[in-house]
Amino acid sequence: MSDERDAIRSGRVAAGDGTAVTTDWLDTVLADDAREHAGDYLADDGFTARVMAALPAPAEIPAWRRPAVAVLWGVAIVGLAFALPGAAVDVAREAFRLFSAKPFSLSEVAAVLALAGLGTWSSAYYAWKRV
Amino acid sequence: MSAPAVTDAQLIARCLVGDDRHAFAELVRRHQSAVRGCLRRLTAGDAALADDLSQETFVLAWRNLKSFRQEARFSTWLYRIATNCWLMHARKRKEELLGDRADAIADDDDMPHLTETTLDHAHAASLKVDLERAMRVLSAPERAAIVQCYHNDLSHEEAAYVLGIPVGTVKTHVLRAKQRLKQAMAAWNPREGTA
Predict the structure, then answer these.
(1) Do B188 and A54 count as a contact with CB atoms less than 8 A apart?
(2) CB within 8 A of B126, min separation 6: which ones?
(3) Would you say the ipTM is above 0.90?
């Protein structure tokens, strides 16, 4: 509590010569009333229990949900791989053509692979956390 | 009083990371008295209503714990929620805090005649009753400003955070509230020579 507030609540402020002078009477009344109630402690009397009972129920996530969703993701990925074999081959062929036609350095290829790996793992991690 | 072994921040972290309800129960136990006391002030002594609003405050705190950024003390954050709950309740009930009650206080024949009181404790009790009644004259924002600045011992800056208004507005509310309180409690003014 600042000195100024202290002074106001005590109903006195320091005058220029260092003596204490009384502030207005209402400040004193309010400060006295606040001081009187400052030490009041309201016994719990079951209040905490009532609050805890009123809290929303915790979200129950069934234990089987996470592995079930992971299996579904796996099935979806495998399904896509089987459903689009032509697309996968086309992508691989075009990638090979791109690499063979342009003189990429080994470091560039490594960087691309690293980025692709990072992206894949980030997506997988994010998907896992979302489950 | 010694500092608790586990701080509020640690308990909050447990709630957030592990959905730990025991940790939250400890937070409720620590702060229930302050929050209920604050709401009793705001509701002018209506203990049942204050407890209902306190319960609502803690439930909201649990739901919004993620949004608590530790920019203020946890207790100050709770005061903010509590004050908002009370203001919303007051709006819902369309409480008329300025009109009829002020007249009722002025016309109330049962008001203790303070000049006749000679015993100190009776004098103090009368003052307490008068102050509680006079607080009802205030508008909701004025009452909230007085409660935060005087009874909850908050600085103007902290009160501004709790009330969600600029510091200047807090000062204005406090000034206006004190003017109204002085009017309602004129009998207590020593210069009037009646108290």
Answers:
(1) no
(2) B112, B114, B117
(3) no
